[in-house]
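Progress narrative, work stream C.
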Amino acid sequence: MTRSDKNKQIDRTKTASLVKRRGILLVLSSPSGAGKSTLSRLLLEEGTLGLSISVTTRQRRPSEVNGIHYHFIDIDEFERRRDNDEFAEWAKVHDNYYGTLRATVDKALDEGRDMLFDIDYQGAEQLQQKLAEDVVSIFILPPSMQELKSRLRRRAEDSDEVIAVRLENARLEMEHWRSYDYVLVNEDLNKTFAALKVIYEAETFKRHRAVYLDTLVNNLIAESVEF
């Protein structure tokens, strides 16, 4: 093999290696009414993130499609998988189980696909414990409790009693803000979304996610330079 042929082979290997990046698990949490759902929707509309599809024991609604909205299974199967440690995260909410299968997460990460998790602090903590290097966690705060209350009222979905419960739950949830990588105060939705995109883009360039770098650097060092 000539020197020219060898360099061409190195170039092809280098080019192929550049496409490989480990995926990201982008976690968004917030109290109800702080803007998490809206921000999640805007991120998904960008087309670079896929939404994590949860497994649940909840009954399927007529408008829902199995495998698209949720993976619907019975309680016995969920508990069997939970006991086998098959979930990356799970929780019991209103007598129904919800969780994300570890195999689904591992496959996405290995293929360089990024997943969005719209979950509370309990799920976030489980992901951070099991997949710390892959998680980017962001907590969304309201600018004030009065503004949070106003947003919940503007929804016109809940009674005053339910809103009072949500506000009390919000106080409990906000106590966990220190366990997140980033905290954004959502006073202006456009500005918060812009900051969210900056965080996400910067995290895709983190060194430990660029699994192609070992090959690239080795090729750069080995590559001969002709003058």
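Work stream C, second folded protein:
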Amino acid sequence: MTLREASDATGVQLSTLRNWARKGRVPTGLEESADGSHRMVSLEGVRARARQLGHPAVESRPTPTPPIAPASSPIVEEEPVAPPPGTMLVPIDAWDKMLLQLGNLHQAGQQLAEARERAARAETEAAFLRERLAEMRVAPSQEPATAAVEEVPITPERDPAKPVKMPRFSAYLWRMAVSGRRK
């Protein structure tokens, strides 16, 4: 009979019966039905355990009659289906948690790749700016006296009045290098 029916028949609390069944103190079994699975217990097993612990109301209650299964639906015991070799059953909440962590790991990998790319670009730009700064710091006495100044014709692509667009950080570093200020 179900735990509730055994509780009604013996007077033992339903939660106590659940604990006994969970800990294996009374013989139990799971029965699948259309409503779901139900834990079934032996009435005699429950009565024996209750007597052993000294529950007074056990003997005074009448034994309920077990429900009779309709003739149209015979009770068929099916063997449990074993998972295929090399596989294992995982609870759905554990599976969902693992997939979420895997997604987070993928996202972290993408962010790391982007950060490495930005660091490489910044390193290249810093090396370029160091070279430019070294060129600008060359003293005028070190330049050859007979350096010819080459005239570059002004074309629409190379108009000196038109400022060259630079990224903000590069422009800041360039201004710092030209003005001679150091941090």
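Residues 29 and 69 are 18 Å apart (CA to CA). No further action is required on this item.
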